[in-house]
Amino acid sequence: MARPLFVAWALALSACFTGGFLSGQPCTADSDCGPSLRCEAGVCGGPSAQTSPTTTTTAPTTTTTASDATTVEPTSTTTTTTTSDTTLSPLTTTTSTGEEETTGGGCGIGRCKDLDLLFVADNSPSMLLKTLILLDFITTFGNEMVPELRQACSVHLGVVTTEAYPHNPVECQKLGALVTADNNGDPCSFTEGLPYATLPDLDMPLTLECLFNIGSDGHPDEKPIDALFSTVGALDPSLNTGCNQGFYRPSAFLTVIMLADEDDDNNDAQGHDGSEEIFESFWTGSLTNIKPTGIDDLYMVGLLGDPKMGQPACAWDPTENDDGFGTETTPKLRGFIQSLPPERYAIDTLCNVVPGGNAYGALLQEVRAEIRAACGA
What we know:
Blueprint: H1 3-12, E1 39-40, E2 43-44, E3 56-57, E4 80-81, E5 92-94, E6 100-102, E7 114-121, H2 131-149, E8 154-161, H3 205-212, H4 224-231, H5 238-241, E9 253-259, H6 283-290, E10 298-304, H7 331-338, E11 345-349, H8 361-374
Parallel strand pairs: 3-4, 7-8, 7-9, 9-10, 10-11
Antiparallel strand pairs: 1-2, 5-6
Protein name: Lipoprotein
InterPro entries: vWFA_dom_sf (IPR036465)
Keywords: Signal
């Protein structure tokens, strides 16, 4: 219904955004599909969308901000020209195991030299109509957080979905395995050849678009908690030495960003089981115990289905489609995040957010300030 307005907003977001993020989304006209796609058979790019965004060249300006962290290079045939930031010198080296070693002087955010950022993102069918809301969040994340991340000695930035991601290579279609391809199955091209973004990729907006272009064709039985604990090695230690190639580093500062429009329920209204391996009363203790320094190197962000205070909830109908419609309140996920000290988490909503503009600016300014404080910067 309001989709044309959302699309008009999305096209105005950034000159770097190619529109490939809209591939596979429903449409009624070419204008719904951005600058690089056409509306074919009611779907942007056609029912089996394969897009090849045009070459993008980034020119330097005198007042530069963070690169847009939402856009990506979906295929190996795309040629992207970027302008190197001459104020930054290489700060990391990579070993054959994918472990980054901090190098150079003066790098780090206060005491925090190495940063791991893990996005746990719901890609189930109920997320279809929230694509542009997430794009708003990810764009603002790029504007607010990427300048801060560039100060680190090393960065690991990865995405996992709430079930096994079906577009990964077959051997890495496992819960907790990092996303390495977009929703069309086109591999994401990370600079260092790892299954996650590192410092050089922060200046590659098309690469980052690929990373977040996960679609909404995932399994409706969302398991964000199991996905989180699998990625950090509590449930499946083999992932970090296998598919994830050293993504999680116990000594690094870990930031978890959880994006979900449903709670992690055991036997919910749709008959799904959700995460079961770790009892919810142990979630927080288990996470802090994984870090050798406990809470000192941990921060969480939740973008959940709950409405903002004083506003009505977005209507949630669990019986519509296989995965429900709207946004569900998330007492378990919210309780998990809020069990951390107040200065170690930030929460906002997927509900009652009108895409377009800077809906998440205040949230990510809070995140940036609190991570700096946690690191003594």
